[in-house]
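Entry 14. Structure prediction run on the chain below.
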Amino acid sequence: MTGRPSLRPTADRFVETTLELISESGGSLGVNLREIARRMGCAHTNVYNYFDSFDDLLWSAFRRVLDDYSDFWARDLDESLARDEYLGRLITNLVAYPQQHPGLYRFIGSDPISAGDFPDDILDTVVAMKQQLFAAFRNCAPGTDVTVVDEACNIVYAYIDGETFNLINERVVPGEDVAGRTVGNAIRLFGLLTKQK
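Output returned:
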């Protein structure tokens, strides 16, 4: 028990508690159902009143993080911004989320979850997020062939993701501004790939 007042378990509380533990643990690998229930002050079997399995609970938590991440990288983006400012904000947001939420980013980016019952809506959400990201990058390269921009987006995002995992896994030179370097390099990379000035 953590000293919290005993509140009735709900599906939302299970998801919130799961995300708290994932965040605190730096990912989902050390998080289990008994620990979640202990934090909530209930029996671990209570989860089955709301979820079919522990993996079902993890997928619900995964959905929540995807929504939060999507909202985060799209914040402060306004199509009235100058193209360079828009691109800078977009890339800064993509780099900042994992820095601020390394456990949650690791959870959606690399931690294993049983794919046996992979929910269709998760795939739909990921596809929709990718389309939103493509649209955001297209705003930064008006007049450029959509296929070129989408491919540039894939390459830039892969670069950001790789640097991000180096950063959150602390595989960096001490004192190096990896986040700043990543933002600058990603902006330059997008410009080169789309032949933007």
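The chain is about 65% helix and 0% strand.
Filed with the rest of this week's runs.
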